[in-house]
Amino acid sequence: MLNMSDIMETITMIQDENLDIRTITMGISLLDCCDGDISRSCEKVYAKIYSRAKDLVKAGEGIERKYGIPIINKRISVTPIAMLAGASGGDPMMYARALERVASDVGVNFIGGFSALVHKGFSPGDRELLGSIPEALAETERVCASVNVGTTKSGINMDAVAIMGRAVKEAARLTASRQCIGAAKLVVFCNAPEDNPFMAGAFHGPGEPDCVINVGVSGPGVVRAALGKAGKDKDLTEVAEIIKKTAFKITRMGQMVGSEASAMLGAPFGIVDISLAPTPAIGDSVAHILEEIGLERCGGHGTTAALALLNDAVKKGGVMASSSVGGLSGAFIPVSEDAGMIAAAQSGALCVEKLEAMTAVCSVGLDMVVVPGDTHEDVIAAIIADEAAIGMINGKTTAVRLIPAIGKKVGDMLEFGGLLGSGPVMGLNTSSPSVMVGRGGRIPAPIQSLKN
């Protein structure tokens, strides 16, 4: 039974505290689109995606009107395209163009899955796809790419890490006239989940159903407001309880929207991802939640501990609200998309090294971090390796989304607009890791992998 106070609370969350459904993402398997002829395979890809997703945007807009809940993005994730390229051979750019065309025709914001899983080596099609990523991201508007270079069970493929260091730099260079947006559509993972609805890292894992609906919820502003109302006299146990109860309410809304979209589209409901995904809007910041907990400025000492508390409480509240919590689920810390992170970076309180420490306890990793445009590709590769090592050793997902700002230096700003916001160029330690990166091979799996 709904009561008036619950209704009014939800209205306040939406109107005043930036609560929204960040995305409804339809995952679509393309395994039945494999063909020895790449042209036929691309035709099958277009037809399969169009038939499944043609009503996705309409369904999302219908739910928005029915419940008054903002649904910011409607997206598609597909089987890693490297799997299809391995069967068909040919130029992977043909797949990129097919994905862009169908995404445009069905009207979604993004389509993810120009991806490869290379954590233990390269299968046919993987190297060709990795080599085509910069061009694919430069030529398309909606296509997003991701590459999984490591897992706790397999270790880290350093040959793939080196390739991705070059790919990040080249994707930025090819889109320098468009604020280096190509690099913002590229994520490098360790322990990538198969059901993540968030871009740019979404892909439809081979263990997923033929078609599924996944939902991503966002509510940093709601959590911050709840802590603000509670006052400064609460101890940290009580702070965690407030966050947990707020995450419960946010997740219930996501569960409802996912179930509704599932029924409308005739596809099973997969997961609700309860990640606190910030935006550049004032008040919708994970950094500001950490400051509400009691930090003078995000990035100062105590930041990692506060983030650990936040991330854990969000997960606990979510799993109490739904048996279908999945994806990444926790707290995102993208710099350019978070007003508080931007301010902390500009003030000097937040540096890349502190961000790396924070990624040990948050949902993802170094996300939307803008670095100088002259950063060497081996430095980028080494940053990817560092993040992958954190994920591998701790058995968690980590990722890197760096944007080399071509032609810009530390302190300059890169302006993306929209949800991607703007990012200050952050300084890096540029001592050379080239000998280590150039060794290649594989960093072996840790002893923690032997759990059977």
Tags for this entry?
2 domains, Anaerobic Ribonucleotide-triphosphate Reductase Large Chain, eleven-stranded mixed β-sheet, alpha/beta, two-stranded antiparallel ribbon, 16 helices, 452 residues, 46% helix
Question: Can I get a quick summary?
Answer:
Helix content is 46%, strand content 17%. The chain is of the alpha/beta class.
What does this protein look like?
This protein has 452 residues and is of the alpha/beta class. The protein folds into two domains: 25-190, Anaerobic Ribonucleotide-triphosphate Reductase Large Chain (Alpha-Beta Barrel); 218-449, Alpha-Beta Barrel (Anaerobic Ribonucleotide-triphosphate Reductase Large Chain), CATH 3.20.70. It has helices at residues 4-16, 38-53, 56-67, 81-88, 93-106, 126-139, 158-174, 181-184, 220-230, 236-265, 286-293, 303-321, 339-347, 352-358, 377-394, 434-439, and strands at residues 20-28, 71-78, 110-117, 143-151, 155-157, 186-190, 211-218, 269-273, 366-372, 398-405, 413-415, 422-424, 442-443. Strands 1, 2, 3, 4, 5, 6, 7, 8, 9, 10 and 13 form an eleven-stranded mixed sheet that branches. Strands 11-12 form a two-stranded antiparallel ribbon. The termini are far apart.
